[in-house]
Each structure stands twice: as structure tokens, then as C-alpha cells.
Amino acid sequence: MADHGGGGGCCPPMDLFRSEPMHLVQIIIPIESAHLTASYLGDIGLIQFKDLNADKSPFQRTYAGQIKRCGEMARKLRYFKEQMSKAGLTPTPKTESQGDINLDDLEVKLGDLEAELIEVNANSEKLQRGYNELVEYKLVLQKAGEFFRTAESSVVAQHRELASDEIPEESLETPLLTDQETKTDQGKQVKLGVLAGLVAKGKSMAFERILFRATRGNVFLRQSSVDEAVVDPSSGEKVEKNVFLVFYSGERAKNKVLKICEAFGANRYPFVEDLSKQEQTITELSGRTSELKRTIDAGLLHRGNLLQTIGEQYERWNILVRKEKSIYHTLNMLSIDVTKKCLVAEGWSPIYATEQIQDALERSTIDSNSQVGAIFRVLHTKELPPTFFRTNKFTDSFQTIVDAYGVAKYQEANPGVYTIVTFPFLFAVMFGDWGHGICILLACLFLIFKEKKYSTQKLGDIMEMTFGGRYVILLMSLFSIYTGLIYNEFFSVPFELFSPSAYVCRDTSCSEATTIGLIKGRDTYPFGVDPAWHGSRSELPFLNSLKMKMSILIGVAQMNLGIIMSFFNAVYFKNAVNIWFQFIPQMIFLNGLFGYLSLLIIVKWCTGSKADLYHIMIYMFLSPTDDLAENELFANQKTLQLVLLLLSLIAVPWMLLPKPFILRAQYNRTHQGEAYTPLEGEDQSLQVEANHDSHGHEEFEFSEIFVHQLIHTIEFVLGAVSNTASYLRLWALSLAHSELSTVFYEKVLLLAWGYNNVIILTIGIIVFIFATVGVLLVMETLSAFLHALRLHWVEFQNKFYEGDGYKFHPFSFTSLGDDDE
Q1: C-alpha count within 13 angstroms, C-beta hemisphere, residue 716
Q2: pLDDT tens digit string along 313-333?
Q3: Helix, strand or coil for residue 245?
Q4: In terms of C-beta density within 10 A (0-12 exposed, 13-18 middle, 19 or more buried), how is residue 468 classed?
Q5: Helix/strand/coil (H, E, C) string of 151-198?
Q6: Which of 438, 458, 612, 621 has a 20 to 30 Å separation from 310 between CA atoms?
Q7: Which helix (H) or strand (E) holds 243?
Q8: b or e along 505-517 (b: 16 or more beta carbons within 10 Å of the residue's beta carbon)?
């Protein structure tokens, strides 16, 4: 086995067929070198620690205080990132390390920076609020001043009108009421108060209505809209507002008006009726706003410089804090011995990584100046190890497809090896068109060329999924080009790529081409479907027959591969019962029926016979002794059918009955008067399987084992039929893709071309492109992908794949995410 193969290389030494051999290790670490040891082990990332303190709460663990410190520093860093985001700044990407920084020093520095930033923000917010209030106050004075000037000009106009009516004794100073009226209405004279402010334009109508109702119409309200939206001092958001003036009489009315203003969030400002004083106040406000603006700008510049300084170091600090937090989380999983001088760790690691781990332990002892080195030893256990496959960026996406169904049990045969070829091939059988394949290939090559850029960016969900599967899409497109050449379809158009068509017209006019048909005049077309078939009367019957039979051949071949994989599993785990009473009867049953059908298809192709395969297969069951007559494809076919039918019938009880009885005998032989402890030696996996359903219970439940075997047998027998039929989806989707492509080409592109109009042709081309991309290159690709996924998960993997393992998750700094807590 080669040394560690990383996930980033192109082709590292690896063995994908079975997961890496693992062992359980115990490490006894002196307390003074524990932190550095965990750091070095996190760098190599090849050990998965077990939690030896599972019975303790997070607050009872040894390093709870350090984790709390790291959590607080992480909170401060998140606060800095949030502030930088608001200021439109981005943290500077990671640069070369500028020297190690101590965690204690970093904690102090982050605290000082947070305090300074909070103070700067508070001052800036206070100044900005004051500035916004002054701006609003200035607007109120300007708009209210307009009210009073308008009122004054209106009074002047009225007096001029009265003067024109020749009432000379009245002037501007003449009281509105005569002396007699004044005497009679002396008790009715009141002084009006005024309130001024701003209210949101959207609330102005409701504000006016509530004022009227609350005071029973005993107020006078004037409103004027502000031309531009103003920043509200309370919320800091831009809001469109109206300036209002409320004239009231009496304290009760005033109190009501104040409460209504408060309820509507209206900002009130002091107001004087004297126009000269208003002008003077506006001048003062202009000076104060200018001064405040300069102060705010200086504060923002200081804040920007502070955030810029933080941004330059942010990534470095963030990585350090996340590393420290993960180290202490890991140390909390270790148990501390009674002397309080060392920590005991247990975990899983690949066998090949033993040397690297021991080297890391030695380095940590030397670098921490510890008097005692860490002790490393391997523990023997019957616990099932985690599953670990060494993958690279090419094989990882295929392994992810398999793991989505279920993680492989430790060292069982991995279908991911075959999925690299079979998955894109089954996709291509349904998607066969070399024009569409080239389009997908170009899009995929773009993702591959941009992978360095995209791998460091945060992409959307769909884009991230597409980018992660770029190498799957690459093979899917290449296989689609291959099957498209076999089908001879380029956007549904056939081409004579490899030679002229083998078929020619009967005469020079070619008038009988669509009635009687063509005749063979040249050598057989060397590769794929002859282009003459496309557009002919017999195109659909011919292609349907070809693709349907091809689907059955592919399906039977892949199901046989799945059963053969179960044989390799049984041999590897020394499970003789599964070889004799599962693998052999399954092979006989599947190939006695559908293997025989595949043989008939191949013989019929080779001999050119007109035998009816439906008739042969149906009457093989209904009347196995009847004479085949014209449906006989080879000598002694009837005898072979009888033998295969008999073997298939025998295979069913062969699968069902012997295995439960053998497992019970095995249990009785090895567990007489003992608790269940698997013996080391041969057929160890049989003993495990005998108790698989009981999940560790000591009693052997024969009824459970028998029912389990009965279900397994029925599932296989019925599945052999249903799974073979399921592979016909290859034919159905291939036909659907071809017909859709033909419809878009003939009914959109050619139809638009026939009008001899540039506008119609342009519209036709645009519709054709959108239909091809949207339907054929997106929806059909997704459909074929999902169907290929189902064929692998259900029809192929259920023949041998248990998928009940658990994944190897080593303690590694490379797997730390930005949101790790």
C-alpha cells in the first residue's frame, strides 16, 4: 500500500476497491505537550478520536474555559467581519505568516480593537443622530416659515381689499373685533399654542384623521411635503416625510397632540412664530450642521482605517482562533488519568498512517521540551472500524454518488470503482447525441479551466453542486459523444461520417424510397447506425428493437456484475455459506432466465433469424415441452430450455432453506454454554451474520433469520424480473431524447427556414436555441442523470452492497469551515 494519497493530486496511489485497513490506537500524552500534540495531529489529519468523556456535559470537561475564551474571540471576529461588510470592505486573503502570535496576546488585542471600534461607532452614531436632527429642525423652520409668510401675505391682501372698499378707519393695526364685540366676547378670548415637527408621509393621512377625532376638530393642522427623503434620527433610514404645524387651544388638547405625535413616531422641534428669529435660527443651524459634517467625516475616516488594519490580519486571526478551538474540543474528548499528569486518547487511524502519527508525536515531545514522550500503541477490538477511501478530485465525486446511498461497510467491495465507468455510460445510452454531448463538454471544460478560481469562492447551491460534479459531467459528455456517434445523431441530424450509406435507391429518380424502400448497394456502414435509417418508414421499429434489446443486454450484464461482487465479498470475509447458498443460486436463477434471453438476442443478431423471442420466453414457462418449430434458433434449444427452467426452479429453495439451518448449527456449535464471542479463525463473518439481525443479543432467533432469508429470496426472485424491466428505461429515455430533438429541429428550425423571412428565421433560431438548452441540455440531462442514479442504487448495488458503515472523519485543520463553532 502506498503512502498517503491526498485529495488534491491528479492520480495518487490508491485502492478504491476496498476501504483502507484501519486500527484502533491509544495514545498516552503528557499534559505539558498535549496542546502541541493535538496541533501536529490536526496538521496531518489521519486520526479520528473517540469521545472518552461522553458521559460528561460540555461544562464539566477539562478545557471548557479555553473553549469559552476561543468562542468569545470568535464572536469578536464575527463582529469585525460584520462591520467590514457594512463598510464595503473584504478581508485581505491569506498571506505569508508574519510570525507566530500568542493566543493570550491575540485575546488582549481583539478586546482592545473591539472596545475602540464600539466607541468609534457609538460616537459616530451619536454625531450622526445629532446631524440628522439638525437637518430636520432646519427643514421644519423653513417649511413652517413658508406657512407664516403665506398667512401674512393673505392678511395683507385682505386689508388691501377692505381699503379698496373705502373703509379708511381700518388699517393693519385695527382690531379684528370692534370694542363692542370685544366687550361682549371678552370671556371667549383664548391664546393658541403651536407644535411643529415631521411625520412619515405614509402616516400623514392617519395622523390627520386621529388628531381630528381625538380633539373633536378643535385643532388646526397644516402639512407640507419635503421634496427629498430625509434620514430619520431614530432608525437611521431614509424616509419620505411631511412637515406639520398643529395649532391647539388648552393644555388638554396639547397633551392629546403630544401623545398622538409619540404614537406616530413624529419628531417634534421647538418653534417660534417670529420670522426674524426663525431666519437667525436657520443661519445658526447651517453653521452647526457644517461643523458636525466635518466631524462625522473625520470619524468615518478613522473607522475605515481601523477596519482596514483589522482586515489585513483578519484571516490569520480567524484561522488561529478556529484551530485553537478545534484543538481544545479534541482535548476535551480525551480522558485524564488519576495522576492528572497525562491524557489518554483513543481513535481510529489508517494502518499506513502509523509512521506519520509516531513522527508527529516525537516532534511534539521535542518542541514542547517535555521530559516524557507520548506512548503510542495499537488496541485489539471487535468494534467495526470507520470506512475511509483515499480519493482525489476526479474520483471524489463518483465516491460521493455511492456514499449518498449509504457508506460502505468496512472493507466491503466498493461500487465506486465501477461507477466511474458505468454511471456516465448508462447516462450516455439515454442521452446519445454527439451534438448535445459537445455542448455539455464545452460547458464542463469551462468549469475545469476555472476550477482554481471557483474552488476558493462561495458559490450558490446549484452552481456548487454542478462544479463539484464537473468530472462526472466530463465523462458523461464524452460517453454521450460516443453513443451519439453510434446512434448517428447530431441534434437529430444523421451524417455520413465514416463512409457513404450502404443503401441506395432502386432507380435514378428515387421515387420508391419512401414506399418500397432502398436496397443495399454498398458495404455495411462501418460504425453505428446507417444514416439511411433516419427518416425512413422503418426507422422507429428498427431503432426500438435495437435499443430495447441493447438495454436488456446492458441490464443483465450489470446485474451479473453485482452478483459477482457479492462473491468477492463472501471470499474476502471467508463466508462460505454466502458463496454456496447465495451467490451460486442467484447466478443460476438470473442467467437461467434473463441470461438465456440475452443469449437468444445475440444469436438472433448473428444469424439474422426471424424467431419471435417473446413467444419463446412466454412458452418456455407455459408449455416448456412444446416444439419450437420456426422459433428454434439453434440445435437442442428445447433441451437447454428445460434444463435452465429446472435449475431456476431449484435455485429458489436453494436460496431459501439451507442458509438459516446452517447458521443455527454454526451457532449451536460455537455457543454452547457461552456468551457470544466470535472466534478468531475461519467463517468469522458467518457468526457475525447469524446475530446481525439481533444487534448484539446473545440469543439466536431462528425465526428472525428464517424470515429475513425468506424476504431476501422473494426480493431477489421478483427483483430479477422487475430490475430487468427497469433497464428498459434506457430505451425509453433514449427514444424520448431522440424524438424531442427531431421535433425541435423539424418543427422549429426547418419550419422557420422554409418561410424565407429573416425575422421569422431569427425568431426560429432563438426558439430552437432556448428549447435545446432548456429542455434537452438541462431538463433531459437531469432526467437521464436521475435515472442512471436509480439504476446504480437499486438495480446494481442491491445485489451486493450493504452500505451500513460509517465514514472516517479525522481531526484535521483542512476540514475546518468558516462557520465552525
Answers
A1: 28
A2: 999 999 999 999 999 999 999
A3: strand
A4: middle
A5: HHHHHHHHHHHHHHCCCCCCCCCCCCCCHHHHHHCHHHCCCCEEEEEE
A6: 458
A7: strand 241-248
A8: eeeeeeeebeeee
Tell the residue number behind the cell numbers 434473463, with chain if given: 594
Q: Cα(127)–Cα(755) distance, rounded to whole angstroms?
A: 71
Q: How many CA atoms lie within 13 A of 17 on its CB side?
A: 6
pTM: 0.80
- Which amino acid, residue 286? S
* 646 C-beta neighbours (distance < 10 Å), count: 12
Q: State how far the Cα of 524 lies from the Cα of 807, in Å rounded to an integer.
A: 53
Q: Work out the pLDDT band at 4, boundaries 50, 70, 90.
A: very low
482: which 3 cell numbers? Answer: 460516443
* Distance, CA of 281 to CA of 794 (rounded, Å): 83
Closest CA to 665 of 700, 625, 630: 700
Work out the angle at residue 81's Cα, subtended by the Cα atoms of residues 75 and 86, and round it to the nearest 5 degrees.
130
Q: Which amino acid is at 400?
A: T
**pLDDT higher than threshold 80 for residue 287:** yes
Could you report the per-residue pLDDT of 772-786, keeping only the tens digit for each? 999 999 999 999 999
Residue 789 makes CB contacts below 8 A (sequence gap 6+) with: 401, 423
Residue with cell 406616530: 264
Q: At a CB cut-off of 8 Å and minimum separation 6, what does 458 contact?
A: none
Residue 150, pLDDT > 70, answer: yes
Asked whether residue 630 carries a pLDDT value surpassing 60, the answer given is yes
What is the reported pLDDT for 301? 92
| pLDDT tens string 83-115 | 999 888 888 876 555 557 888 899 999 999 999
- Per-residue 3-state assignment (H helix, E strand, C coil) for 53-97: CCCCCHHHCCCHHHHHHHHHHHHHHHHHHHHHHHCCCCCCCCCCC
CB neighbours (10 Å) of residue 277?
Answer: 12
Rg of the chain on CA atoms, in Å: 43
Separation of alpha carbons 242 and 266, rounded Å: 10
Q: What is the mean pLDDT of residues 542-562?
A: 95
Which residues, other chains included, contact 323 with Cβ-Cβ below 8 Å and sequence gap of 6+? 39, 42, 813, 816
